[in-house]
Design goal:
CATH class: Alpha Beta
Mean pLDDT: 90
Strand content: 5-15%
Largest sheet: 4 strands, parallel
Distance between the termini: 34 Å
Strand order of the largest sheet: 2-1-3-4
Oligomer: single chain
Number of helices: 4
Structural class: alpha/beta
CATH topology: Rossmann fold
Length: 168
């Protein structure tokens, strides 16, 4: 493949999990992947706890903003190779659905912005979400994308979401 794979992370509000996943893959993908994030109902701002975690982890957060998935459905938008939903359907969140031909998988992660308790407990919820997303992205990056057929790849992508959900 002559170009980087385009990956879109979707979550309803595009304020925490999908933004963290975008940052992680853009760093760990080492130019072989270009990650984006969006939501079906984007919030007005990126969650401050997510921004703090990313800033403290030395990510460039200057361009982060909640985006509508409509930006990525436009004719001039990058063509996506992969689309991952990271919302938590167990918490009765509505996960966006992406039409088209990219490979898709659901990698549900508990919504850290719903965490209650002390400041430490809230920050821990964001750290746990970050850790789960990092692990899934690590597994995704280990797949032999050039040499695996679509059906096997789809199975592996789904397994990443299921397997790491059980680990958490």
């Amino acid at each position: 493949m002559d170009r980087a794979y385009n990956v879109l992370f979707l979550c309803t509000h595009n304020s925490a999990r999908s933004v963290m996943a975008e940052c992680i893959l853009n760093r760990e993908g080492k130019g072989k992947f270009k990650a984006f994030s969006a939501g079906s109902a984007p919030s007005g701002r990126v969650n401050p706890y997510a921004l703090d975690l990313l800033r403290n982890s030395k990510y460039d957060i200057s361009a982060l903003r909640p985006k509508s998935w409509d930006e990525f459905a436009a004719p001039d938008a990058p063509q996506m190779d992969f689309v991952f939903t990271v919302c938590d359907d167990a918490a009765n969140e509505v996960c966006p659905v992406w039409p088209g031909q990219p490979m898709t998988a659901h990698w549900g992660v508990l919504d850290p912005s719903r965490a209650e308790g002390t400041e430490v407990e809230k920050r821990l919820a964001f750290a746990e979400a970050y850790k789960m997303l990092s692990r899934r992205i690590e597994l995704f990056l280990s797949l032999p994308l050039q040499s695996i057929d679509r059906l096997a790849l789809k199975r592996h992508l789904d397994d990443i979401g299921l397997h790491t959900q059980e680990e958490g």
